[in-house]
Amino acid sequence: MTKFAGMKKMLLSVVLLSASWSGAVCQPVDSVFARMPLEVLPLLERNPRLDMLDLYNYKIQAKVENVFGGSSVLLAKTDDYLRLRLTEVSHWELKCLPLGGDWIYACVHSLRSGATESRIALYASDWKTVEGAGFGCPPLQDFWQPADSISEERRAELLAKLQPVHVEARWSPDAPELNFSVSVSHLSPEDREDAARCLRQVVRRWNGAEMTESR
What we know:
By secondary structure, the protein is of the alpha+beta class. 29% of the residues lie in helices and 32% in strands. The longest helix has 19 residues, at 3-21.
C-alpha cells in the first residue's frame, strides 16, 4: 500500500468513527458498514470494506478480495443502503431503518443455487440480533394471483413444481421497502413463463416500528 493510500484510509477511518459517535441522529451507511462486526459478514474483513467504500466514493470500481480469495464488489450505495455482489452466486444488502431515536440494521443475503433464496437478519444498533415483525418471507398463497389464460390443471401443476418455495428478497435503494418475489429460475422456460403470469411481487414497507404490506 502506498503512503498516500494509507493516509486516505486513515482519514476515512477517522471520519467513520466520528460519524458513529453521533448516535442515531446521523448514521451514514458508510459508518455502519465499516464498524460492522466480522461475524455479521465473515466473507469481508474490515480493511477490504474500507477499501470498497473508498473506491466507490471515488467513483472507481469497488472490487476487493474476500477471505476466500475471490472478488466481492460494492454495486450500489445510498445514505442508508448498500448492495454487494459477494460471489458469482450471492448478493448481500444492508438497509438502515430508523426506530424511534435508534436504528435497526436489516441485512439480506441471497444465494442462487438453481433457484434464488434469501435470508434476512436483523440487528440493533449495538449489533445484537433482534426479531422484527413483518420480515419473514410470505407464504406462496400471498404471491398467487388469478390468470385467466392459465387453466386450473396447469395452475396446480405449477404450484407443485414451485415446491419447496424459494423466495428472493431485495431492498428498494431509495425507500424503506422490502420486495419479495418467488424465484422461478430453476423452472423450464415454458414453466417460468406460465408461472410469471400467476405470481405477483409482495412489497412490505417499514413504518417506523414494523413491516406492513404496501401493495
